[in-house]
TrEMBL record:
Protein name listed in UniProt: AtpZ/AtpI family protein
Organism: Roseomonas populi
Pfam families reported in the protein's UniProt record: ATPase_gene1 (PF09527)
Region (Disordered): 1-34
Keyword Magnesium: no
Superkingdom of this protein's organism: Bacteria
Listed transmembrane segments: 43-61, 67-88
Bias type Basic and acidic residues, positions: 1-26
Record's keyword terms, sorted: Membrane, Transmembrane, Transmembrane helix
């Protein structure tokens, strides 16, 4: 039977609006990676990289200023806080872009 009234098209659009059928993604959108391994690796990289950058910055400043270990400790905790903030941003629900 011919699709006279476009019911299938309207049903597909309604399911997409309600979030039942995901919108087709085009490449390069920079969203969450797919699958649990991809999300886990990205979360791990976010935390570890923030800690490493904070610790390296603190260690470098300590060597330059001769205050070891105080700035190292301060920037290590600042890096940890930045890592947690990155995780929050990673998993925070995003509003869908409207048409």
């Amino acid at each position: 039977m011919e699709n006279r009234d476009g019911f299938d098209d309207r049903l597909r659009q309604a399911r997409t609006r309600q979030g039942l059928d995901p919108k087709p993604r085009t490449g390069g959108e920079g969203g969450l990676p797919t699958g649990p391994w991809g999300i886990g690796f990205r979360a791990g990289v976010e935390v570890v990289s923030a800690l490493v950058v904070g610790a390296a910055l603190g260690f470098g400043l300590d060597r330059w200023l001769g205050t070891f270990p105080w700035l190292f400790l301060v920037f290590f905790f600042v890096g940890g806080a930045a890592g947690v903030l990155n995780l929050y941003r990673l998993f925070k629900p995003r509003p869908e872009a409207g048409p």
